[in-house]
Structures are given as C-alpha cells and as structure tokens.
C-alpha cells in the first residue's frame, strides 16, 4: 500500500495555518514524523485518520481519497489509530475495553474476537493483567492498551501519535520495540509521530521533520545528522554561556562548564569539533541557524 499527500493543507478559524502544502509519498515500513510541539504533526495525523477534512489538497490512502465520504469509510476499515490522548474507561478491565472497541470496529464473531484480543494482550505483554481495571494501570500500560486497540483490525495503515510521551525509559523502549516488530511484519505503513528524537533514531529509516506546518526535511536519519557536519563543537568555559551558539547539552566539569554546541564558534571560543548526532542535525535544522536549503547546500559542498 502507498500513501500519497499532495498540496495537503489545513487552516483553522482565525487564518491559523496548522499544515501548509505538504507533499509526501509513503511506502510500507515505519516512518518517523518529527517536530516540536505545535509543528502540525497531530493535525496532519488527524487528516490522515479522516478526523479532519483538509482545507486544500488531498491525501490518498491506497486507492482511497480522504476528501471523499465513501472513501473515508473504507479508510477506517484498514486504519489503526493511537491518538495522543486516548479516552479509556477506568472501570473496565483491559480485556473488557478491547472487547468493547473490537465490537465498535465490526469484529462481531465472538470466538474470533476473543482470539484476537488474547493475541494482542500477549503482544503488548498485558495478558497477566487482562482482568485488572484500567484505573489501576500505569501510564505505560495504558499506552500499551492503546496500541492493542489500534491493532484490533490488523490494520494496513497504523498511526501512533506521541506513543512514548511521559513514559519512563523502560516503557519507551518496550513501545519502540513493538512498533519495530510490527513494521518488520511487512506490507504495513506505520507513521510514528513524536517530538522525541531518540524514538525515531532507534526505530525509523526515514524521517520527516515538520516545522510550522511545513516539511523541513525528508530523508534518512544519517542524512539529518550530516546537516550538522562541521557545525558541532565542544567547548569548556567558566564564563558566560555561549549565547551566539545553539546549546545541545551542558555538563559541569572540574575546569568549568562543558558545552556541546551547534553553529559557528568564534576563535576565542577554543571549540573542538565533534561528530554530529541525529539530535545535533535536528537542532541545526530547527534552531534558525540555517534553513533546510542552506543546510543541504552545506551537505552537498
């Protein structure tokens, strides 16, 4: 299945443009959608999930057009969606919640529904707490229940919006691993929307970066990291912060404060060059030190 976005835009009342003229062609696999809060990621996901109608342009999910009412019904049959905020019923158990959601999704055969729910509870490592009420679940457990409900109809197209936000490192790794395994099954398009660079670094071979509703980067993680080649430095100072540079990290040392910085240091900074990471490339792209075009020109030179 292929997903094609053409001139996709969304403008809210007050002439607020959340998504502007997005063009993307998405093949099966796991693609990371990265960007700061307010970049337009959730609006884009909601349009693809048929929850919002584009103001301009369109998106085709396989053979279906998100702007057509009949097509939207067909898209929902092949779609799995884990929104940023999933409404759970705290008095239901994990099994009861999934059973309810499965009925809403049209899984009316009781035997087949029970088998599917059992499979998914095993997949998300919640089989042993299937009868526990959701109000007693941790944040990570709730996100895993949410992922299970998104997979009930074995979707060809899966959208997960900020699945690891607010989770501890162990739960983040667990969720990332599940998504990677789902992608390895083949034939399925998975869009992982997040503002956490590490999540996409560990799972995705293709990244799309949104900023102010526009695509600022589309490529492999190593290509994004390479945007900061020759612009990533380490410097130690006991004086003022290097405000003329973008600061990636700060670490106290015996001789002063060690900074990892992005940009063009001055000779008096006594900066030492470093190999850039994905986070450095992302910071270079988003900090205003360079646009996508100038950074790509540097990469090609």
Description:
The chain is α/β, with parallel strands linked by helices and 301 residues long. The chain folds into 2 domains: 3-219, P-loop containing nucleotide triphosphate hydrolases (Rossmann fold, 3-Layer(aba) Sandwich); 224-300, no CATH class. Helix content is 33%, strand content 28%. The strands form 3 sheets. It has a 6-stranded mixed β-sheet, sandwiched between helices. The protein has a 4-stranded antiparallel β-sheet with strand order 2-1-4-5, with helices on one face. The chain has a 4-stranded antiparallel β-sheet with strand order 12-13-11-14. The radius of gyration is 22 Å and the shape is globular. The two termini are 36 Å apart. Mean pLDDT is 91; it is low at 289-301.
Task: Give the topology, please.
Elements (H helix, E strand, L loop, with lengths): L2 E10 L3 E11 L2 E6 L6 H8 L7 E6 L2 E2 L3 H10 E4 L11 H11 L5 H14 L15 H12 L6 E5 L7 H16 L4 E6 L2 H5 L4 E6 L2 E6 L1 H6 L5 E6 L8 E8 L2 E7 L9 E2 L4 H9 L5 H9 L1
Parallel strand pairs: 3-8, 3-9, 6-7, 7-8
Antiparallel strand pairs: 1-2, 1-4, 4-5, 9-10, 11-13, 11-14, 12-13
Helix pairs in contact: 3-4
What is the structure about, briefly put?
The protein is α/β, with parallel strands linked by helices and 301 residues long. Helices cover 33% and strands 28% of the residues. Helix 3 crosses helix 4.
Shape: globular
If strands are numbered along the chain, what order do they take across the biggest sheet? Answer: 6-7-8-3-9-10
CATH topology of the largest domain: Rossmann fold
| DSSP summary, beta strand count | 14
The arrangement of helices and strands along the chain is EEEHEEHEHHHEHEHEEHEEEEHH
Structural class: alpha/beta
Q: Considering DSSP H and I runs of 4 or more, what fraction of the residues is helical? A: 25-40%
What is the number of helical segments per DSSP (H or I, 4+ residues)?
A: 10
- What fraction of residues sit in β-strands? 25-35%
Rg, nearest Å: 22 Å
Total domains, how many? 2
Low-confidence stretches: 289-301
The end-to-end span amounts to 36 Å
Indicate the CATH architecture of the largest domain: 3-Layer(aba) Sandwich
Largest beta-sheet details: 6 strands, mixed
The level 1 CATH classification of the largest domain is Alpha Beta
Mean pLDDT: 91
Query: By CATH's scheme, which homologous superfamily of the largest domain applies?
Result: P-loop containing nucleotide triphosphate hydrolases
């Amino acid at each position: 299945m292929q997903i094609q976005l053409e001139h996709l835009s969304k403008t809210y009342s007050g002439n607020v443009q959340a998504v502007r003229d997005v063009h993307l062609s998405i093949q099966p696999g796991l693609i990371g959608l990265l960007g700061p809060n307010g970049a337009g990621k959730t609006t884009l996901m909601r349009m693809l999930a048929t929850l919002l109608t584009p103001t301009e342009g369109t998106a085709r999910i396989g053979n279906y057009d998100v702007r057509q009412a009949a097509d939207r019904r067909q898209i929902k049959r092949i779609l799995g969606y884990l929104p940023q905020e999933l409404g759970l019923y705290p008095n239901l158990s994990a099994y009861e919640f999934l059973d309810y959601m499965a009925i809403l999704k049209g899984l009316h055969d009781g035997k087949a529904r029970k088998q599917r729910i059992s499979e998914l509870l095993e997949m998300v490592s919640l089989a042993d707490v299937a009868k526990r009420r959701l109000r007693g679940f941790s944040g990570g457990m709730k996100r895993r229940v949410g992922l299970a409900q998104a997979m009930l109809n074995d979707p060809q197209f899966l959208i997960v919006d900020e699945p690891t936000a607010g989770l501890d490192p162990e739960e983040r790794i667990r969720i990332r691993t599940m998504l990677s395994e789902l992608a390895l099954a083949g034939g399925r398009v998975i869009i992982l929307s997040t503002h956490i660079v590490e999540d996409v670094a560990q799972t995705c071979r293709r990244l799309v970066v949104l900023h102010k509703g526009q695509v600022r980067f589309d490529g492999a993680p190593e290509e994004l990291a390479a945007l900061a080649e020759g612009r990533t430095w380490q410097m130690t100072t006991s004086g003022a912060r290097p405000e003329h540079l973008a600061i990636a990290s700060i670490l106290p040392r015996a001789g002063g404060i060690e900074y990892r910085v992005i940009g063009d240091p001055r000779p008096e900074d006594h900066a030492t060059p470093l190999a850039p990471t994905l986070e450095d490339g992302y910071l270079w792209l988003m900090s205003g030190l360079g646009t996508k075009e100038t950074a790509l020109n540097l990469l090609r030179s």
